[in-house]
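Q&A log
Question type: sequence-to-structure
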Amino acid sequence: MSVIRPFAALRPSSSNADRVSAVPYDVVNAEEARALAAGNPLSFLHVSRAEIDLPPETDPYSDAVYAKALENFTALRRAAPLVVEDAPAVYFYRLKMGSHFQTGLAACYSVDEYDTGLIKKHEKTRKDKEDDRTRHIITLRAQTGPVFLTYRHSAAVDAVADTVTAGAPLFDFASADQVRHTIWKVTGAELDAVVRAFADLPCLYIADGHHRAASAGRTRTHLAGSSPAGAAGEAGWMLAVAFPDNQTQILPYNRVVKDLAGRTPESFLAELKTRVTVTDGAPTPGGKGEAAMYLGGRWHALRLQAAAGAADVGSTLDVSLLQDQVLSPLLGVGDPRTDKRIDFVGGIRGTAELERLVNSGKAAVAFSLFPVGVDDLMRIADAGEIMPPKSTWFEPKLRDGLLSHLL
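Response status: OK
Response body:
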């Protein structure tokens, strides 16, 4: 079963929700965050990326940054203002980008279920990133960025969502990137019904936000040592939004490599053709088992072939095949997590960004991939496997600051 818990959200008013809301802390660097928050003192980036209000040379993990985050959070609660709901509730949160929309449930989800594997993972986490968000949560005594979950779709959940979203929303606005964010509060009979519907789900899956989830677990452990009541109460729950798998959208996570390991474009292409099938192609792959490559001002199609009888699901993904058949043997990219010669470009930036990077000389070659399916993610998580690094780019993104969970 999947246990969900209503919570008394800290939130902005409907009139200023668009100004408070901000992109997730980890999809922008400090310079981009500073530019996005410029001229908007209510932007939640002043809380989630507080280093933007300190000198540019400030270490983002320094004591000063967490102290500034608390100072800014306290000030924002007064200035916005942010209010705490009178009673616990859950919320349906709809994201609409172009013709695509998805409706998820914002609620508190069990840290126990995360620890025991009922909320399934597919990604390794880094200690420095866990340390950062754990300290951020403990300093603010609040979870301000939701974990993005998915689940195998449920007719019972859909029925409650249809009823609730037919009513008036709490928030409804379009962000600067033209994604529409609409949130409905769920109370009364509908709240009881959606809690029961989630209880019938066998498990949940982390789609995006592994570091937030791990940090919620570490926060509970920390508070248990200093305040058992805190660990038994709000700290035993993490803020998340769960979307059905048939609405969740994954875009490709593309690759660029800075050099050709000493080869010319012509010699690299010739050697590549001895390893994989290469033809003229389009910027976007036609399906699984194909990648598009931009080299020397032209797009090529690469046919990637999985080995028969592969031992694990992850090794058959296109990102793995590209790594094993091209990036590692020809370009010397051994570990994409640590190699400074490779960079990753979210699919939302489009293939024009790949062309720009190569044409400008910032990269020597670019690879456009076919997106991983949600079913692949679930099969890997069910098998207890780990996805290859930078495999999935979920879009549209949830916004920070709209619903926070106080500990």
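Response note: The longest strand covers residues 100-110.
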